[in-house]
Amino acid sequence: MSRRTVRELVDGESVEEIYVIADKQLRANRNGNTYLLANLRDKTGAISGLMWNVNEPAMAHIDSGDFVKVQAKVQMFQGTLQMILTKIEGVPADGLDPEEFAPQAACDVQRLTVRLTELVADLDDENVRSLLQRFLADETFMQGFTQAPAGTKAHHAYLGGLLEHAVNMMEVADRIAPLYPNVDFNLVKAGVLLHDSGKIRELGYEDSFLYTDAGQLLGHLVIGVEMLNEKLAEWNAENETPFPEETALRIKHLILSHHGTHEFGSPKVPMTPEAVVLHHIDNLDAKVNEFLRDIDDDPNVKSRWTAYNQRLGRKLFKGSTDEANE
């Protein structure tokens, strides 16, 4: 018997099914009573699960990243489906297919890997090209880079998402380069490949998407610079001429400034033309992906609008759909 996936859930149905608990929080309502807020997911999407009148000891048997079996009623609340849980219990991973629970990329990972290799090979700065090819030749790096999501919730939050994000950004950089002849797009493309590379160590993504200890303590910007330093050390050990110091400094700045502002987690704001280009390409691809997925994943298919997205601070207009016109 096939699973009842998140995407198949409809308002009013009762469900008994296994999901991954991607996030677990105990909160207090207005009366001070504690309730469970769980983010439940499988490969098709995520849904919030709420269980009223629980306490810490009662929920100690489950944790983020666990497989859980739930009994619940699905209901629509403010335009979004949620589950009201009556029972939740951990289940062993034995016999479960991890691919049923991890969101998958809609893209062809192998094709994107080939395209990334081609785009790096086309760089005309020999030093930058050779440095990036060291990353591409690193099997451990590429195993993570082609599997990792680009985030846990916001954009490209699925297996292969980090690779898709990087190739999309590289393609954008390739197309706009002729418009800005005074910008060094060899550096921009180095920033594209490396700006989120630290996420392969920041995130855990085998069963569910979680932050590792290193991810929580350091973050992917710092980790990314550490990974770059590792490759620069290899370069300098194997070459008579050390890697150009200013070029290395500029690439590190790209990694550390790509979030754009201090309030969004950048220890440095963009201070080179290449850094400001990278920041805006990154933001463009991330936001477009988030908008499209929010529209595509909206459970209320007959509505012309999505539910209010707290993260984006707005609803999104879907317009006419076949379902809405029936």
From TrEMBL:
Gene3D superfamilies: Hypothetical protein af1432 (1.10.3210.10), Nucleic acid-binding proteins (2.40.50.140). Keywords: Hydrolase. SUPFAM superfamilies: HD-domain/PDEase-like (SSF109604). Residues 158-296 form the HD/PDEase domain. GO terms for molecular function: hydrolase activity; nucleic acid binding. Its EC number is 3.1.-.-. The keyword Repeat does not apply. Pfam families: HD, tRNA_anti-codon. The keyword Hydrolase applies. GO terms for biological process: rRNA 3'-end processing. This is 3'-5' exoribonuclease YhaM. It comes from Symmachiella dynata. The gene is yhaM_1.
